[in-house]
Protein 1
Amino acid sequence: MQRCVGVQVPIPAPRQATLFYKNVRRNRNATDNFRFSTLEYKRPDLEAYRAKLTEWKAAAEQAESYDALRALMLKIDRENCELFTQYSIANIRHTLNTRDEFYETEVAYLDDTLPTLGGEEVALSEAIASSPFRPDIEKEFGKQYFVGMDLQKKMFCEANIPLRQQESRLTNEYQKIMATAEIPFDGKTLNLYGVQKYFEHPDRAMRAAAVRAYAKFYEDNEPRLEEIWDELIRIRNQMGKNLGYENYIPVGYLEQSRTDYGEKEVASFREQVRTFLVPLCQKLYDAQAKRLGIDHVMWYDEKMVFPDGNAEPAGDDAFMVKTAQKMYHEISPETGEFIDFMIDHELMDLQNKPGKASTGYMTSLPSLKAPFVFNHTIGDMQVLTHELGHAFAGYMAMRSQPISDYYSESTDIAEIHSMSMEQFAYPYAEWFFGDQADKFRFAHLQEALTFVPFGVAVDEFQHICYAHPELTPKERTYQWHLLEEKYMPWRKYESDPFLERGGYWYHKLHIYLYPFYYINYTLTTMGAMEFKKKYAEDKAAAWQDYLKLCKTGGSRSYLEPLRPPRSANLHRAPWGY
Ligand code: ZN
C-alpha cells in the first residue's frame, strides 16, 4: 500500500493568512462548465502582487469601520484565491508531465519568488491582527483565524530564507536520486516502484532477491544519502536557532500547525502504541507465518498476507472508477454529487503515463471550489477511497467555510478524512473485488494496524536526529535499528547486513522532505478506527459526524473537533455523575 505524501498545500512560503472568501458564486456561469484540461494558465504578476500587499496593509491600518475592513479582507481573499489557483494549475500540469519545459519554468519561477513575499505577507497580517476591529473578526470568523496568523508570524524569519532555499536544493537532490533509480532485476532495469512490485511475488526466493536488489540501491547511495541528511539536520536546526529555539523540533511542529499538543503528548502516544498495539501486531504476524507455513515472517514476507496471493481487483481501471462512482452515490447524496463533479470537470488523473511524476496527492483550485486528485496508479481501491476522501473533505469545506483560509485543515485532521473513507468503503468491497472482498478487507485492516508501529518509529527517529546532531551518520542509522527492535520486534531481514544495521530508513522520503509529518498517519489511524467502530454501531450517526468534520475544514484546531460533545464527556467521566 502506497501512503500518500500528504495533502499538498502548494504555496510554499508563509501561509496565506489573509485568504478571505465570500463572493464565490460571482462567476457561477463562467466556472460551472470548466474542464481542467482547458483551464487557462497565466503567470501571476508577483511584483504587482507585492505592491498590492503593501497597499492592502495601509488600507487595513486606515479602515474606519469593521465593514470597510471586512470588504477589504474579502477582496484580498479573492485575489489570493486566484493566485493560488494559478499556482495549482502550474504545479498539477508540471507533475502531469515533468518533461513539459513550460510548466517546469513556471513552477521554478513561482517557487523561487513566492517565499520572497513573506515579509509583506507578515506585515499585512500584523496590520489586520492589531486592528481595533479584531473582536469583530473573531466574532464572525472564529479565533482560529488569528491562531493561523500567529503561527505565520512565529515561523517567519528573514535569516531563514536562504536556508529554505538550501533545504529545497537538498530535498530535490534526494528526490532525483530516488526518481532516477535503475535497478537491474529479473533481467530488466527497474525503478524503485517496479522492484517493489516483486515484494508480493508468490515465489519466496524471488521476493527475497527483490528485497536484496532494493536494499542494494540504498546501500550503493548511502554515502550521499548520509551527507544530505547530515546537511538537512544542520540547516533545519539552524532555522530553529534563528527563531530562538534549541533545535528544529518546535519549528517542525509549528509547520504542521500543531497548536494544541506538543512533543510530550506525541511521546506518550508512541508509548501507548508500544504497549498496546505492538503485541497485537506480533500476533497478526504469528498468524500470518502459520498461514504461509513458514517459521517466521521475514521482511520480504510481510506483504504476503495470504499463501495464494492478495486480493486482485475484479476489473480494469475504468471498471474501478465506474464502481467508485456507483459507491459514492450509494454512500450519501453529498458524495454522489462530489464524484460526478470530479469526473465531469476532469479533476482526477490516476493513470500511469510517461513523464508523470511518481507521487500521489490531493490539492485544490480554490477559485473554482474544485479539488484535484493526482496519482500514477489505481492499483486497488485505496487510491479511490484515500485520495478521494481528502478531495471530498476539501469539496465540503470549500462549500461550507466562509473564508479560504479554512478550506484546508491541519494535516493531522486531513488524514482522518482519507483513512476513514477507506473504512466507509469496506461494505462495498464486493463490488471491487468480487469473492475476494474478505481478503481485501483483512489485508487492508492488518496493514492499517501494523503500519502504526512503523509510523511512530519514523517519528521518534526524527526527534532523535534533530535533538542529537552530534551523532555520526552511522550512529543515526544504528538508532533506526534500535527503533525497529523497540517497535517492530518481529522485523527480520535475514542476513542482510545493511538492513540489519538500520539501513531501511533511507527509503522514507518523508524524513527528508516532510519533517514531522509522519506521526499524522498514526494519529489519524486512531481517528479512522473510531469512525470504523461508530459506523458499525450506527451508520447514519457516524456518517453525520464525518460530514461535520469535513465541513469544519481548518476552522478548528486538532483537539477541538475530536472532543466528544459535553454530554458524552460527562457520560464517560470515570468518576461518574
Ligand atoms: Zn493522505
Protein 2
Amino acid sequence: MSDDFLPINRVDHIEFYVGNARQAAHFYKTAFGFAQTAYSGLETGNRERASYVLEQHNIRLVLSSALSPDHPIARLAHLHGDTVAVVAVEVPDAAAAYRETTKRGATGAIAPMEIEDEHGLYRAAAIRLYGDTLMKFVERGKYRGPFVPGYTAVDYAGSRNAQGKPTGFGLMHVDHIVGNVELGAMNRWVDFFAQTMGFEQLRHFSDNDIHTEYSALMSKVMMNGNGKIKFPINEPAEGRRKSQIQEYLDYHYGPGVQHLALSTGNIVEAVTRLRNSGVEFLRVPSAYYQELEARVGKINEPVDTLAELGVLVDRDEEGYLLQIFSKPVEDRPTVFYEIIERHGSRGFGVGNFKALFESIEREQELRGNL
Ligand code: FE2
C-alpha cells in the first residue's frame, strides 16, 4: 500500500509487567522453550527494574519487574496481575509513526526519544492502546546492540537458526495479538486501528458466530497495510451466563491483551514439547475428532495424533489451519496462548469457536465464574 502512513516491519517485542520477572523468565524458558538473550537490572546499573529478554526464532518477549513498590511497573502488575504492558512494533521512523498517529487522534504516551550508545542509535516513541497497554514504535535500523540501550547480552548455548536466533520448540512468529475491551467499546478500537493506525478490517464475527448455550462474544480483526500485523478485538456480548471476555475484564481490572498467537511450522512437535514441559492446554470432547474429517476434509497430519494432543483444525476457502489454546498462564483467568500452524488459511478457526468456548466455559465453571 503506497499511502501507508504507518509502515510496520514486524512485531518487535511484547513486554510483560510481572510480579517476579526472574521466576517468570524461568517459566518461559523451561515451559515454552525460550532462551534469554539480554538482561537489564541492578548488575547492569539499572536501579529501578529488572528485565529479561527472551527469544525464540522471531518472537521476543520482555519480562519486567519493578524494584520498588511505587514504580509504575509495580502498580500495574499489582492492579492487573502479570500482564502485557507493551506491544512494540518495529518501524522505519519512530518519530514519524508517533506524529502520524497522534495527528489522527492517538494519545501520546512516550514522546519521540533517542539514545546513542556504543552499539549505535536507538529511537522509540509510544501511544496508548486499550486499557493500560502501550503501543510502542521501535526504530532500530541504526542500532546493533543486544536489545535496546541499557541491556547487556546474555550468552546462550543452545541451537540457533540461520539468523542467530534460538530455535527452542520451533515457535516462529507472533501471528496475532488479541485484545479484550469492555462491552460497547469494540467499535471505538476498530476505529482507532482503522483511522489512527491505517489498518483495515479483515474479519467480523458477531455474537451469532460466537456463542454457546450460555455466553457470547463479538470480535473484529484489524490488519495493517502489509498484512503482517493482526489485532483481533473482542467485546463481551449478552448471554445467559457471564461471557469469558467479561471474566477476563473482571480479573484483569480492565481491558488488555487476552492472548498471543504464536505460529509454528510443526504444531505436533511444538505442542508435544510444550506439554512435556508442563504447559496446560484446553481439551475438547473426543466427539470433535470423530466428526473432524467430514468437516475439514483431508489434512497432512494424522487425526489420532491431533486428538491425542488436543490440536484443533479448521478449513476455509484458502486452506486449513491447526490451533490449540493454553489455559491461562497466571493465577487470574487472564492471559493465555494460542499455538497455530497455517496451511493457506488466513482465518482464526471460526469452525472451532463453539467447541473451544464450551471448553473455556467448563474451566469458568470450575472457577465459579460462569
Ligand atoms: Fe487467536
